[in-house]
Specification:
Strand content: 25-35%
Radius of gyration: 15 Å
Low-confidence stretches: 116-135
Structural class: alpha+beta
Largest sheet: 6 strands, antiparallel
Helix content: 25-40%
Shape: elongated
Number of strands: 8
Number of helices: 4
């Protein structure tokens, strides 16, 4: 929940302007500039996304479902480095107990939270600081 509160504040300026059903990358970047988050626009392997700091976490924000330069969905992902390995059973328990976040083991066996691994092995989706604290 700690991660969602800043995200809701992040969406506040956009919601105040009316309902948006799609954003261009430029509109998304303007939204990021309007809130106090550090971010970097990235282009890797033909994919465009933003790296940002959110609630003390390093996260990636991916515009997805894009057609004709307008994207109808955003996915937020975060990965975590832990001293101890996380079992698949703990990951499955996380997924059973939390409705709006999904955890997975990345290619190196480390935990991530979000929509699961995306193209190029990068994670996609909404991260949750509670994953790091719970696992």
């Amino acid at each position: 929940m700690r991660l969602w509160a800043p995200l809701l504040l992040f969406l506040g300026p956009a919601l105040a302007q009316g309902v948006r059903t799609a954003l261009t990358l430029e509109e998304l970047e303007a939204l990021l500039r309007s809130v106090p988050y550090r971010y970097e626009r990235v282009e890797e392997e033909g994919e465009k996304f933003f790296r940002l700091r959110l609630a003390g976490l390093r996260a990636q924000l991916f515009p997805i479902d894009c057609r004709e330069g307008r994207c109808t969905s955003l996915m937020l992902t975060a990965s975590f480095a832990l001293n101890d390995a996380v079992s698949l059973e703990r990951i499955n328990a996380w997924n059973r107990e939390r409705r709006f976040s999904r955890a997975y083991l990345d290619g190196e066996g480390g935990p991530g939270a979000g929509g699961g691994p995306g193209p190029g092995g990068r994670g996609r989706g909404g991260g949750d600081r509670g994953l790091h604290q719970s696992l």
